[in-house]
Known about the structure:
- The protein is α/β, with parallel strands linked by helices.
- It has 2 domains: 5-133, Rossmann fold (3-Layer(aba) Sandwich); 161-203, no CATH class.
- The chain has 8 helices and 7 strands.
- The strands form 2 sheets. It has a 5-stranded parallel sheet, sandwiched between helices. It has a two-stranded antiparallel sheet with strand order 6-7.
- It is elongated.
- The termini are far apart.
Amino acid sequence: MLPYHVLIAEDHDPTRETLSILLEKKAYRVTAVEDGEQAVDRLTAIDAPCIAVLDWGLPDMTGIDVCRAVRRQNLPHYTYIIIVTARDGKDDVAEALAAGADDFIRKPYVLQELIARVRSGQRVIELERNLANRIKDLEEALGRVNQLKRLLPICMFCKKIRDDQDYWKEIESYLHEQTGTDFSHGICPHCMEVHYKELSAADTDPQPEK
């Protein structure tokens, strides 16, 4: 599996470089930027990082502004956003969460704490991806069920079914492709009576007394 992609938005060069090196040592793929505009561009791109560590006090726009800009987009992926700041007021936490942040770290912080928060975000992203895959599987299964509910073109002689690519297939093969169903073959009582009348009669004849 590819390493998780983390964005760091920090205008203090030594801090940005330290965090980048630390996360890369922990097997994360890192993109580091120094202002909010670059952060928004990267977080709204097709190959956007799935986790973002945003400093509140970026030079051109705040980390909160970046968070709001990302959340306003109807993106096909979810980004776990961590806001980092020296602010310590309760209102600051509320503002960050209201803007769409998932986590909040106050400066000064211990590097191990930041790594733990990033790993927490990774678990959330893993759950989100697993849920998306389950939803996709269910939608595909529902599509197959709806397809079977439609009027199926079937040959009146050999009973083969025509699929969407205009190929004629045995009914067993068609249903296995659509639903994964496998067949076991037997003989119903009616067909036993019609096709194996002598065997059927032998089973019902009384046995001679010994």
